[in-house]
Structure formats: structure tokens, C-alpha cells
Specification:
Layout (H helix, E strand, L loop, with lengths): L1 H9 L9 E9 L2 E8 L9 E7 L13 H8 L4 E5 L11 H16 L5 E11 L1 H12 L8 E7 L12 H11 L3 H9 L7 H5 L13 E6 L8 H13 L3 E6 L10 H18 L2
Parallel strand pairs: 3-4, 3-5, 5-6, 6-7, 7-8
Antiparallel strand pairs: 1-2, 2-4
Helix pairs in contact: 1-2
Length: 281
Amino acid sequence: MRILVLCLAACLLAAGDGLETGIVHGRVGERAIHLDFLPPTMPAAKPAPVMVWIHGGGWRAGDRSNNHEGMRGFASMGYAGVSVEYRLSSEATHPAQLDDICSALRWVAAQARARNLDPQRVALIGGSAGGHLALLAGFHGSIPAGMRIRAIVNMAGPTSLSFALSLPSGDAALRGSCGMDSRGLIAALLGTEDRSAKAYGDASPLTWVRPDVPPVMTIQGRDDDIVPPVHAQALHATLRAVGASERLVMVDGGHDLGSWNKTQRDLAFLGVIGFLAEHLR
């Protein structure tokens, strides 16, 4: 999914310097949890909307630096960017990852005045496992007082961990990149292989759909063998059923953007730009 973010950045203008890395947004015992911050390229008279970026990697790999190019692209359009570190499943099980993302949101709220940020105009964006966590944080996270999540951009994130198994070819790809197949990655995240365990429902965004969840845009490859399209389809059918704001964009291709048709890819990203502009205006 890092390819997806890098290609997204290539569709946008590059921003200048200003990236701050290694900011501590929380602690668990002696363990510091970090984020990286990028202000908008051009200072604005009014507080800037904020995009909170959550990296993918099967909850087992990946790094907040994977989001820097995407942040730079959107900084040129007036968005502040925050890329969140969260504890991987090799270190802690659910809900540690959700707790860490909510800690970063508290940092945004606390820093809003000093950094000219608008906590009433916040979007969450993530791909694959990052998309799952963006949805879970937006639907079920502890959002700080005075903050409003206005939009969620989910790029092929799992929406139900009870049926999140990849296709055989997808599992082979996961073993190569993460060292585990989909069943193992989910068990590592939740601390159990028992798919009837309560954690499987608690950690599934589908469980927490309600009419007032933030507007959701999902970009999903029709040929995705790692996170099959049934995840996006089930999520958006459920959102529509309760009357929540949603937009599903299906494109030809697999899990990574590099497999997508260029025309569809460009149209999908223009859709993301429009979606954010609509909801964070």
C-alpha cells in the first residue's frame, strides 16, 4: 500500500520543507510513541484543516515515514499533515493501535492554537491496515473534546476481521512482505485465533457503523486478493442502509495502485481531492 501513497503524491504538487519528525505524542511506560508533522506549504490567515495519516503493513510492518510524500502533496493544497506511529502487533495487541491513534488526535487538539490548526476540520486517511485503523478510529475512537472528524479516506482497508481472509495469492504476498498470512496477521493483532472471540467484532469497523459516523470514501481494487472487494462492498452497503454519508470508488486492479489503470487511478485521486474539499471546507 506504500506504492499507493507514493503514486497519490505524484498526482499532486510537491511541497517545500517544514517536516518535523519524531514528535512524542504519547507514552506507554518508558515507551515513547511518535508522530511527524508537516504544516501547509503556504501560511494561511485561518487555521488549517488537518489530515491524519495512518500507515499500512498488516499491523505488523510499515512506518510513519511511508506517508511523507503524500503529506507533502496535500500540504501544497493547504492541508496540515500528521503521520502517526502506532504500536505494531509484534509489540502489543488491539486496542493498543487504536489507543495510539487517539493519542495523536489529542496531540492535534492540544497543539491546535500553537500550530494554527483547525480541530473542527480533521480527516483520517490510511491504506490497507491503515485504512482499517482510520475507519475504526473515526467510528469508535475516543475523539478529543472540541475535535470533529469530518472525513475518512479508506484505501482498501479490511472492514470485518471475522471474514478478513485473503485469497491464496494474497496470502502468499503477505507472507513475503509481513512474514504471515492474513489469518496469522489478524490473530497477532487480536491475540487469539478464535474467530468467535469478542475481539474480532470489537476490532471490526463494520460493528460500529451508525448514522452519524463521519463521511467515508473508500477506494477499492476489483482484483484485490489481499483485501477482497467484499470488505468495501459490505461497509458501504451498511453505511447506505443507515443513511450515513459514503462514497465507494471501485477501480480495475489489485491491492496496490501500481496495478490500476492510469485513467481510473487519476480519476479516483481527483475524487479524493474533491471529497476532502467538500467535507473539510
